[in-house]
Specification:
The chain has 399 residues and is mostly helical. The protein has helices at residues 3-21, 26-33, 37-61, 67-87, 91-119, 125-154, 156-177, 191-197, 201-221, 224-231, 239-261, 265-286, 290-319, 324-350, 357-377.
Length: 399
């Protein structure tokens, strides 16, 4: 495996830490910026909006760029947005920096995915992509609790400075390991063919599943810190530890999901989403019981991330060799969920429903996601792709 693959994974860790860490910093941000918790939660949604737009736009805009140049530019801008964010005292400015940073972060994801595909043999692409995606999982285990601890002890600005420093280190790694040549004509994606590949109802149903699963996860995850403090009555110092356990559950989930997603995509999705629904209901009923709530939160991380490899596998299978724009659009679908989840949670909290109600919202969204999976699994096709061989429990290819 080329060392550049690991460097790209570490780069995702640096940027993914920023994506996730606000979930543990909402109380500090709200107090310092003089806004409500739901308003602070919109900083998470703003990040998602930037990624929603950035992935397809920058995937197209950089088709002819040197991939190393594109990756370096994206990392540099991302670092600068965090410097600006750390220096500001304005909620509006911080909101703007989150959108711009997320825009280039989405571009980094898109270009990194294409880079990985060109660096390894075709039979090692899935493994290489799992290493890159693993950077986000490590960010959940290490970056999220670390950012929370830094924010609680040294101020939330310290977490932003740390992310900027990590991005500079990532730039050194990219400069040293990623080839600098521009893609030749034979390796440059055909935009017309990429757009034609998107004219596929089955593909858009897969995007819908991605968005719904992500929203079901984020409606709870975005408000974990205040939920643990206000509903579960944990001390503030215990929150980073619980978030680390959530990250550990996520790591186990994505590992197990990756093991079965290629051969059994629909079963993997069904089990993980059904688990997400059941656990969200349990959390809604037991949020005030610390031992149960913490256990459920760990399992939620596992079920949520177990679905991730299958969500990506479906898109790669349906798009085939015209997957550049489809992959970018799937990243956007993830961020539709990241946008909608915190927004719906904020509406419930503002309405006085309380933090346990977030679990019931996740149940409803999860049920919709499960419905799309079942619909796709039993949607007849004449020539199923490799990710469709697990359409039913009878293991006959039909979706």
């Amino acid at each position: 495996m080329p060392i550049a693959v690991y460097v790209l994974g570490l780069s995702i860790f640096a940027q993914g830490t920023s994506e996730l860490m606000l979930a543990g910093l909402l109380p500090e941000l709200a107090a310092d910026l003089h806004v409500t918790i739901p308003q602070a939660g919109l900083l998470i949604s703003a990040f998602a909006v930037g990624m929603l737009v950035g992935a397809p736009v920058l995937a197209v805009a950089t088709l002819t760029w040197s991939r190393r140049t594109a990756l370096l530019v994206f990392l540099a801008i991302f670092a600068l947005t965090h410097v600006a964010g750390a220096l500001t005292t304005s909620y509006g400015v911080l909101l703007a920096t989150r959108i711009v940073g997320a825009f280039v972060y989405a571009g980094f994801w898109s270009v990194a995915a294409v880079t990985v595909v060109t660096l390894v043999r075709s039979d090692r692409r899935a493994r290489a992509m799992s290493i890159v995606t693993g950077g986000l999982t490590i960010a959940t285990i290490v970056g999220l609790p670390l950012g929370t601890v830094l924010g609680q002890r040294l101020g939330w600005q310290s977490a932003f400075w740390t992310v900027a420093g990590l991005c500079l280190l990532a730039m050194v790694g990219v400069l040293a390991t990623v080839p600098g040549a521009r893609p030749g004509p034979e390796n440059t994606p055909d935009l017309v063919r990429e757009l034609r590949a998107l004219v596929n109802a089955r593909l858009w149903l897969a995007f819908g599943t991605t968005a719904l699963v992500t929203a079901a996860i984020l409606v709870v995850f975005s408000y974990l810190a205040p939920l643990l403090i206000q509903s579960t009555k944990l001390p503030v110092g215990a929150v980073p530890g619980v978030l680390a356990l959530y990250g550990l559950g996520s790591f186990i989930g994505i590992t197990l999901g990756g093991r079965y997603a290629d051969a059994l995509p629909f079963r993997t999705l069904f089990v993980s989403i059904a688990g997400l629904i059941a656990l969200s209901a349990v959390l809604a009923l037991t949020a005030t019981t610390p031992v149960v709530a913490i256990s459920v939160i760990v399992l939620l991380g596992g079920c949520g991330f177990a679905a991730n490899p299958a969500l990506n596998a479906r898109v790669f299978s349906l798009a085939g060799d015209r997957s550049t724009l489809a992959t970018a659009t799937n990243f956007s679908a993830f961020n539709v969920g990241i946008t909608v989840g915190p927004w719906l949670g904020g509406l419930a909290i503002d309405a006085g429903a309380g933090y346990p109600a977030l679990g019931w919202i996740a149940v409803v969204i999860g049920a919709l996601a499960l419905a799309t999976v079942l619909f796709a699994a039993f949607w007849p096709v004449s020539s199923p792709g490799p990710a469709d061989r697990d359409a039913t429990d009878r293991s006959r290819p039909s979706a």
